[in-house]
Amino acid sequence: MGDKQCVHYWIVDNKDIGRCRHCGAVEDFGALMRREEGKNALKTVSLVESAAAKKRWQDPEYQAKQIAARKKRWQEHRAKQNALLV
What we know:
The protein is 64% helix and 12% strand. It has helices at 29-57, 60-85, and strands at 10-12, 17-20, 26-28. Strand 2 and strand 3 form a beta hairpin.
């Protein structure tokens, strides 16, 4: 096709290997589908974890512990920063 980019016309065989009818490029569509399925599985897991995290956060005792831990980490961070400035 010269310097122009090919607008692929894929012909896919029974092994999920596609070949462009115009330029002969080859693509493994099976691998592409597996990658996409893997991405969707990760999204599903993160949604489940997110729902569990939201439920935990509704517990006032859990919230208090998390806030106290964050304050402690922040104070430690500030102390380190101040020590570097001296």
